[in-house]
Structure prediction request, 444 residues.
Amino acid sequence: MQLTNISFKRIQQLALPAIVSGIAEPVLSSTDAAVVGNIAEFGTESLAAVGIVGSFLSMLIWILAQSRSAISAIVSQNLGAGKITELHSFPAQAIYFNIILSIIVLFTTYFFVEEIFTLLNAEGLILEYSMDYYNIRVWGFPLTLFTIAVFGLFRGFQNTFWPMIIAASGALVNIGLDFALVYGIEDFIPAMGVKGAAWASLIAQFVMAVLALVLLLRKTEVSLRLRLPIHPEVNRLVKMSFNLFIRSLALNIALMMAVREAAGLGTEFIAAHAIAINIWLFTAFFVDGYGAAGNVLSGKLLGEKDYRSLWKLTKRVNLYNLAVAAILIGMGLLFYQPLGQLFNKDPEVLDIFYAMFFMVLLSQPLNAIAFTFDAIFKGLGEMGYLRNVLVGATLFGFLPTLYFAKYMDWGLIGIWSAILVWVAYRAIALLIKFKRKYIPLVEN
Prediction:
């Protein structure tokens, strides 16, 4: 059996396409935010609404998208162990599993949208815009979850190129339609405002789903024909997905609590937080690109039981991501002023944003370590430990810091201090676990 290649060139081949595909979802939300934030009338309220809904949608997508990591881990481990032909009926069953999950979530949120956003401190015009935006974008859930499942299969097969093509196509469609539908085209398309941004994202999700379907059927031997009995690996998929579901629930409780507290500070504060969180998510997916390479290769190495190469891979991917973090910090410092103006022109919103944006930059090295180990642990199938780390980080790191900062009246600086503590907790816990469990396997 040919050993897994973990050279610099091979890692770049996997990581660079993964960066492009990984930023698709934040590009959808960030483009929506940037375009609606510059609407001449009620731009700040529109930005606040898209920020609230974008955070809620990211929460749902992240929770449900964890099946991608489980699918990728199962496929890559079987590939490394030389058992890929035994999966046969697993891909179709995994995809239908994802679609069913998305439909359940769609209908359990659609009829309670006003209550959900009221709970997040949206009111008045912001609440109205939030409901308008969500009631359109939510129908993209099944499309997104289908695409995510296909991405998991491609990653398991050690291929991040086709996900990149799919995601880049969706992002380009979304950007073009955002400008056309939000602002309108004279004598052709009326300006639709927030609803236009939602339609742009929904159409982009449809395009991505169609491309995913076509490439899956043409570029792989995977069949979407549902066959019984249930494949044994589906049980492991459900177990992994459940652990990752709890993990993502804890993760998104933290993010949504941050949104809720920012909204409670006032319209300008939630608008500034929306800018910061969109930039943070965008940069996080740059870091996650190298994490994806670690995720793809670590599962295969585990299947091969090549622990020495696993350790080398972990060191290399962490160093690459720290370099990416340094570049992101440099870009953030260089474009400190223009980044805020890209999203909104309200002087009060921008003053608040500029006063706290340095916190987003400080988070980058912590993101690099936490997200790298997070991705590698997913490839190794350590979903139970990832669950425990996120629950611990949220309960014992994020929430105490958040409420202490609120008591001290630190505003957005306090909210982002809680986020930094939360990410640092994850980075340290995962580093300790890897050293305790996998370094001895290398030595033995």
User: Anything to note?
Assistant: The two ends are 22 Å apart (CA to CA). The chain has a mean pLDDT of 84. The CA atoms of residues 248 and 412 lie 23 Å apart.
